[in-house]
Write the structure tokens for this entry.
Amino acid sequence: MNKEVIDEVLAGQRPVRDGFLYSPAAWWTCCALLFLLALVVALPGIDRIPLDSHEIFVAQTTREMSVRGDWLVPYFNGVPRLNKPPMNYWLTGLVAASAGSLPDVAPIHARLVSVGAGLGILALTLWLGARLYDRATALVAALLLVSSAGFFSFTHDARPDLLYACFTSALLASGIVALREAGGALQTRAALYAMWGCFALATLTKGPHMPALALSGLIVNAALTTRRPLEVWRGLRPLQGLAIVALPAAAWWGWLRLQIDGETLDHSQLAGSLLAPAWSRFGAYYLYRPLELLLPWLPLVVLALGGLLLRPARRDTGWLWWPLLVAALGLSFGSQFRHFYMLPVIVPFVLALARPLAVLFGASLRPWPRQLLQLALVVQGLLALACAGWVLVASGRIAYLTPPILGLLAGLASSIVAWRGLRLRDDGAPAMRGLAALAAIAIFVAWIWPGAALTGVLWSKERFDGQALADAAAAEARSGRALVTLGVSPSLFVYAANVRVQAAGDAAQVAALAANGPLAVVVRSDRLAELSPPLLVTEVGRARRGSREDVLVRVDAPR
């Protein structure tokens, strides 16, 4: 590439070439391999890792909706669950029904919804990256995504967060097409209606707040990049769009009001009790903490932020950064701070960081010293090796062909194949060594996750011990004892035993229940002494829970 062409690229007047990715066969092969890699990350262990309390709400609520034959009013432990809209329950039920297991819902059924959402986010990343920039940028973003801690963690989680992220990402992708591209009337209308439809689906998954913030970011950028801002608002067809969003949400909400006491519903999370802004808590949390989703890629994230100084890296990034900024500011006034609340904007997040990396490591473009880029890759590679070493040590099985060893061997082999395959030449251009090295590291990192999942080293021992205690409690319930908790959340035991579990307020209430029949009581260790004579108490098992223990006991009334 001559100096004139390089100057045009740096000035943003010429796109960075994709090299051999211009070949349809090479591009679609890369996409297929990325989806296979995503499944390698997402599937191992989803049937073995115990559900946590938030996942149990999804699985057990789906069970109870199925048993009741009512798929509109969520129930948990025999009472309405007014915390989340029902989309995740519906899809979990669909997966379980497809497997022929309803009304039972296994962990794998609930988590497969998140796996599907993760694949959807990957597809949107590839599609939007290639459409907004080029295939090299899309490939880098997809590699960062599938090898990240956020992708691994939330594809192994049954909560609605990744599904929410998928619908919001689809809203962003279709909104960018509608607002940025001067397509035909039919294409623009289709993109707009798809955007509003995704808004409705996201609202029925977890609420309208993140879709509204993401869309607001798109509107801000569209208004800043046009001479006629009012045309942006008219072009959105807001009345038709709001009707598409409001009709299904209003229909479901109206049905709830017919079934649930109005005052109870109005003070629930479904009514937005957690969305009231807390002005006093505003801070910088969402400006840095969501980077946790992209672990272990922080060295290259720092490099990417510096690379935004390059004009081709900044081109069209307003479509990505404005949704990110508006979402971060909006969440900063919320009453709860969770880094994964930024998951719905994960696609613009990875694309905004992948763009400068694709420019910096482009096949022929060297705007920065080669030594600096090589140093960044070396640091990132050493960090990947350190993560692999930690998994091996934590699993305690270094000397055998266990999942971590097999995963690392597969990752090493795949990385070598990717390195050699991506170093192809196109029309005499220099080898894609930078992108090839980045891809090799990402593939190696991705193969660390399956071994970690299958050995359970990333989940606390308390989680597995708690599941064992819940299984023991379920056995007690099957023997005819009613399940009761004292100072312990009943959620885990509701799912394990699939029965209603009463949460007692004090020992006197336990004694009154014991008068009606034998009990199995899960009690906090510091409250065990409250179950004093004349009650007959026999300990069955214990599980560590932070600084205390949960204790399972049999409780019988005195003879």
